[in-house]
Amino acid sequence: MFASLKNKIREETGSDLSKLTAKITSSTVQKIDSLRGKSHQGSTSSLNSIVSSDGFREDGPIEPEEFRKKLSKIESEFARKLEQREQEWREIVNEKDRQLQILEKRKR
Predict the structure, then answer these.
(1) What is the model's pLDDT at position 75?
(2) Which domain holds residue 32?
(3) If 51 and its partner were Cys, which of 19, 40, 56, 88 is the partner (CB 3.0–4.6 Å)?
(4) 20: in domain
């Protein structure tokens, strides 16, 4: 089953699933780590590498305060998107509950 799914993904995207997931996973882990505050423990050069990998800064050193401002902006955007997704899921669950109640009434 998974082999056919992998082949289908390979046909659709033109690349291997493992390569695609590796890219997604490493970038996601890096962003999650930065949101958790692990990046605050690094040196200025490690802060530069995180920021440059996200496209915020291409050259020159980055000041810790500038990094904190960008991190704060990312965190607030992430929180906003998370709240939006949670609301969408709440609506879906509520609709499914409503449908289940209707079906239970019909069954009786």
Answers:
(1) 94
(2) 1-36
(3) 56
(4) yes
